[in-house]
Design brief:
Chain B: It is found in: Cell membrane. The complex is a heterodimer of chains A (332) and B (276). Chain A is an all-alpha fold and 332 residues long. Chain A has two domains: 56 residues, no CATH class; 248 residues, Orthogonal Bundle (MetI-like fold), CATH 1.10.3720. Chain B has 276 residues and is mainly alpha-helical. The longest helix of chain B has 36 residues. The two termini of chain B are 45 Å apart. In chain B, 46% of the residues are buried. Classes of the chains: A mainly alpha (332), B mainly alpha (276). At the A-B interface, helix 1, helix 3, helix 4, helix 5 and helix 6 of A face helix 1, helix 4, helix 5, helix 6 and helix 7 of B.
């Protein structure tokens, strides 16, 4: 820490302008003020940008949620909690919450374990593993909009690749309307999400796996642990910090899902794939019920906040205690 | 024992090949379909094109529209990246190398930005941009993208700036460098790999952004690639083969960039995720 430009005498020479002023009380105050000004001045551009374009809009959404407001002029028609009352009676919004939960559960139960399995496979010495890694991660760099349009065409009922392939191997029965069928739209959406995002989580896990010291797995091997036990009791606990980050990112991603849904179904059919962000967009930008739409964004904000804080409080904190502690308590 | 280990080495390859096929086939299908005429696509959806038609691709490449979208996306990505990296570098320098009251609180404020979905701010942001006259203006996308990119960029750069040994700073000071001279002449040149990483992240994020350009650009002048793809699909929804060609061409820049900058991208994402 004494490498920083500290304003006290110990590191005095490292602070101010080159010809250090005489070390009187006056010079010290001036130097201190200069130090402070430099430090804060450096923060200023970032702070202004962040306050004006991130924080201010979020706080304003919080305010606007208590008004009936079309988005022109300042909100004046205060309605108290009416927007929220209406929101929690709106079957579409309640459906949004339910679908968000479904996506979270599917991601945690299917997508992330699958990504972990692939990471474990590709962490071994295998021919072509570099190619597979690169390939599995590649969809992550594509825009969600582009991915969405691609899969909207692949899952086009009848003509699309999916139905044609199923037909070619005699499984027409499994084909169907995909995005157009209320009962399969979420599953199709989840399939596309997995195609696009499992590679990202796999990459995180691979980075985590590579930081597991080989001595530990070897020691377990010598102690007679089989492959499964080594994974369960050595690798997995050490991977826990990475897993938690990945879970966190996955949940936040499900809360704010928009692009993919908007280009594939726009929330349809009959709102059966609508997400909170889509509802917000519909009310805010199509129907000009900005106050009501703000209430949706407040709920999104609240969900993210509660989740982030709870997660940080109960789960992430343990990571700070270091790998040895997680090893002890990580397996549950 | 040998039989068992033999089966063990076979099955991972089989699994990987199947998953690999699932990853590749959609992309390959799009490329091949782009070479077909739309009426062939409905008769022969899966196989190779009977006659390779390049008309879909050349038609799109020959139109100014596609290149305008590419130009817009490029300009916005570069603008965002320069802004967010410059502003974040100053801030990260201050976080990493200065002690001042409120430093940790300020840093926490920035990191909290990581948790919140962009959609939460979208409506007020739109109204703000409208009142500032920034709709249908590339700055209307560049500025918010840079602002939302700050948390991740600051976190990564701060971590990197902290690792640069204090002796260097003392040496620079003895040589007559002030804090800013040290930042400009020593820290930034040394931080080139980290700057590369955060730049690559910023470029990819900007290039793929859909929501913000969709809100900000009401007419087509400034549309970016993702918005253009969606509009193109709506416009030519009957002409499947052409939409596929368009999709493929829209994917090429992102995949090419990934091929070139894979290390920075993966390194940045894992660093961002583990240090965040």
């Amino acid at each position: 820490m004494n490498s920083t430009f500290l304003p006290d005498e110990r590191t005095g020479p490292a602070t101010g302008p080159p010809p250090a002023p005489p070390a009187g009380a006056r010079g010290r105050t001036r130097r201190r003020a200069l130090h402070w000004l430099t430090a804060v001045g450096l923060q200023l551009p970032a702070l202004v940008l962040f306050l004006v374009l991130v924080l201010l809009p979020m706080l304003f959404a919080l305010y606007a949620a208590f008004f009936r407001w079309g988005g022109f002029g300042m909100p004046s028609d205060y309605t108290g909690g009416d927007n929220f009352t209406r929101l929690f009676q709106d079957p579409v919004f309640l459906g949004d919450l339910w679908r968000c939960l479904v996506l979270v559960v599917l991601s945690l139960a299917v997508q992330l374990p699958f990504a972990l399995a692939m990471a474990v496979l590709l962490n071994q010495r295998l021919r072509g593993r570099a190619v597979y890694r690169m390939l599995f991660f590649a969809p992550y760099v594509l825009s969600e909009a582009v991915t969405g349009v691609l899969f909207a065409m692949i899952f086009a009922p009848g003509d699309g690749l999916a139905d044609q392939l199923l037909g070619a191997v005699g499984l027409e029965g499994l084909g169907g309307e995909w995005f157009a069928d209320p009962s399969t739209v979420m599953a199709t959406l989840f399939l596309v999400m997995t195609w696009k995002y499992f590679g990202f989580h796999m990459m995180l896990y691979l980075a985590g796996l590579q930081s597991v010291p080989r001595e530990l797995t070897e020691a377990a091997l010598i102690d007679g642990a089989d492959a499964r036990q080594r994974f369960r009791h050595v690798t997995l606990p050490l991977l826990a910090p990475t897993l938690r980050i990945s879970v966190f990112l996955s949940v936040i991603g499900s809360i704010q899902l928009f692009d993919l849904v908007w280009v594939t179904t726009a929330g349809g059919p009959d709102h059966r794939s609508e997400t909170m962000a889509v509802t917000l967009f519909q009310y805010g930008f199509k129907r000009y019920q900005v106050g009501y739409a703000s209430a949706v964004s407040v709920v999104m904000f609240g969900l993210s906040l509660v989740f982030a804080l709870a997660y940080q409080r109960f789960v992430l904190r343990r990571d700070l205690e270091g790998a040895t502690t997680t090893m002890r308590g990580g397996t549950r | 024992m040998t039989a068992r280990s033999g089966r063990r080495t076979l099955s991972p390859h089989l699994i990987l090949a199947v998953v690999g096929a699932v990853m590749v086939v959609p992309l390959l299908y799009a490329v091949l379909s782009g070479f077909k005429a739309t009426d062939e696509l409905s008769r022969n959806p899966v196989g190779l094109p009977r006659s390779w038609m390049s008309g879909n691709y050349t038609g799109i490449l020959g139109s100014g529209d596609f290149w305008r979208l590419i130009g817009n996306s490029t300009l916005i990505a570069i603008g965002t990246t320069v802004l967010v990296v410059a502003v974040s570098a100053l801030s990260a320098f201050s976080f990493a190398r200065f002690a001042f009251r409120g430093r940790e609180a300020l840093f926490t404020l920035f990191t909290m930005g990581l948790m919140f979905p962009f959609a939460v701010a979208a409506l007020p942001l739109f109204l703000l941009l409208r009142s500032l006259g920034l709709l249908d203006n590339p700055l209307g996308v560049i500025l918010p993208q840079a602002a939302f990119g700050l948390p991740m960029t600051i976190i990564i750069l701060r971590g990197f700036f902290r690792e640069i040994p204090g002796e260097l700073e003392e040496a620079a000071t003895l040589d007559g460098c002030g804090p800013l001279g040290f930042f400009w002449r020593v820290l930034l040149p040394m931080a080139r790999p980290a700057l590369g990483t955060v730049s690559v992240l910023a470029v990819v994020t900007s290039w793929n952004n859909f929501f913000l350009p969709l809100l900000v650009f009401t007419d087509s002048t400034w549309w970016t690639i993702p918005v253009g793809v969606q509009q193109f699909q709506g416009q030519y929804s009957a002409d499947y083969a052409r939409v596929f060609a368009y999709l493929v061409l829209a994917m090429v820049p992102a995949l090419a960039f990934y091929a070139v900058a894979e290390r920075q991208l993966v390194g940045g994402l894992t660093a961002g995720a583990t240090k965040g």
